[in-house]
């Protein structure tokens, strides 16, 4: 085994809730570890909309046996960020933030050599727990690269009294539409299908349906955005192309894992784009390289969440110990 200060039993890529859960289990098993995170602690959650409320209860978001106490039945984004920060403090987790992993390769001694934006590491095992929030699904339409277009929505105040187009009708799109409308924006929703997304939160669905019914929010179903210009957009509808005034486009079209990174690490990705791994151990086709959390779902980003992928941490560490 290499003898240097940057060698660990386990190197974990991603300091989200599942990456932290893996670190806690490694700590309990007396394994040395380090988490390397390209952004802030729980970076994806940090980038969620400021006023977002989780679908899950706080108990289902707990890791490490630390109670997640809230005054509401369902916690919000701010409470979650604070909770996970306190978990990191409680376990004194070894986390290196704002450090991007660039390469993971195995050497002749069967040890992983990990190169980052700041230094190099070696590790006996690597866990990839990077989620899927970093790579948005693009619309691939003219004007998508204009400054007024965003694939990440955070705070509705920016859009007060503006003409706003929201693309998408799942939770993120519905939340953006309702919140910006309530800040005085003139909101137009563009929905590719014939109805709102099936996963829209049950307590939010009546609100958005009523706003559309009353004409307070305009919605074009079976439609798509086909071009974006500085002060207007073109929408393809069943009745033909419609042009409307526009100041901002919020494209809530979804996200995907960083497939190029997974391929670079040697992980097999079949045509379905669901990474190859053993569902009992979470080990990929690369021996000693594991996946944890929502990254395992590939393009099916509604398959795995914090609550049903927390178990990956125990599965992985148990396999490593055995």
UniProtKB/TrEMBL annotation:
The keyword Transferase does not apply. It comes from the Bacteria. Gene3D superfamilies: FAD/NAD(P)-binding domain. Pfam families: Pyr_redox_3 (PF13738). SUPFAM superfamilies: FAD/NAD(P)-binding domain. Keywords: Flavoprotein, Oxidoreductase. The keyword Oxidoreductase applies. NCBIfam families: Bthiol_YpdA. This is YpdA family putative bacillithiol disulfide reductase. It comes from Pedobacter punctiformis.
């Amino acid at each position: 085994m290499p003898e240097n200060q940057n060698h660990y039993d386990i190197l974990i890529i991603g300091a989200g809730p599942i990456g932290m859960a893996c670190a806690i289990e490694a700590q309990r098993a007396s394994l040395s570890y380090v988490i390397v995170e390209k952004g802030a602690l729980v970076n994806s959650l940090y980038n969620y909309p400021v006023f977002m409320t989780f679908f899950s209860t706080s108990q289902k978001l707990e890791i490490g046996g630390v109670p997640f106490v809230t005054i509401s039945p369902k916690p919000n984004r701010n409470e979650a960020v604070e909770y996970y920060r306190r978990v990191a403090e409680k376990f004194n987790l070894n986390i290196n933030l704002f450090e991007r992993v660039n390469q993971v390769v195995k050497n002749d001694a069967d040890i992983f050599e990990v190169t980052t934006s700041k230094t190099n590491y070696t590790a006996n095992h690597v866990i990839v727990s990077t989620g899927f929030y970093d790579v948005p699904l693009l619309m691939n339409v003219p004007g998508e690269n204009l400054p007024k277009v965003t694939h990440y929505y955070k705070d509705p105040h920016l859009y007060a009294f503006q003409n706003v187009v929201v693309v998408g009708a799942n939770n993120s799109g519905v939340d953006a539409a309702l919140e910006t409308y309530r800040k005085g924006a003139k909101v137009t929703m563009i929905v590719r299908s014939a109805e709102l997304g099936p996963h829209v939160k049950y307590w939010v669905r009546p609100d958005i349906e009523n706003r559309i019914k009353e004409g307070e929010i305009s919605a074009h179903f079976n439609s798509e955005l086909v071009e974006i210009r500085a002060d207007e957009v073109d929408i393809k509808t069943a009745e033909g192309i419609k042009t409307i005034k526009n100041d901002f486009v919020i494209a809530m079209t979804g996200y995907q894992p960083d497939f190029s990174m997974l391929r670079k690490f040697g992980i097999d990705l079949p045509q379905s784009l669901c990474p190859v791994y053993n569902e009992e151990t979470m080990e990929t086709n690369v021996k000693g390289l594991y996946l944890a959390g929502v990254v395992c779902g590939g393009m099916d980003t509604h398959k795995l969440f914090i609550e049903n992928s927390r178990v990956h941490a125990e599965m992985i560490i148990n396999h490593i110990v055995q």
